[in-house]
Amino acid sequence: MRNVLVLSAMVALSGTAFAHDHSEPYLTHAVFFDLNEDDPASVQALIDGCYEYLAPHDGIVYFSAGARHKDYQRDVNDLDFDVALTIVFENTAAQDAYQVTEPHLKFIEEFNGNWESVRVFDSLAPASK
Q1: Residues 6 or more apart from 52 whose CB is under 8 A from it?
Q2: Would you give the DSSP letter of residue 114?
Q3: Residue 64 CB neighbour total at 10 angstroms
Q4: How many Cβ atoms from other residues are within 10 Å of residue 96's Cβ?
């Protein structure tokens, strides 16, 4: 199972993590899902759905979905989620286009019945120079 990227990892992605020249800020889209049914099969089904429906989109420069690392519980860790999704888009326009695609809407329709809550954090990451 893939390790969950925490917000500090997103900071590490900003700026120098991308090799190609890019002048616009990247948009980091971090989504944290708290599930009603959080058994291993349900968690894995959502992760698999993320990769099936959400990963293959134009404008994505980084994609990761994974389960919360349940054995890693430092005082500063937010433990109120089961699955984390991190997508870095080329720019805000790429994220806007992704939001209305059929696969994204189908993902929401197929999986939202098991969502206790969904928290979304969008931030700008400086472009590499």
Answers
A1: none
A2: G
A3: 20
A4: 12
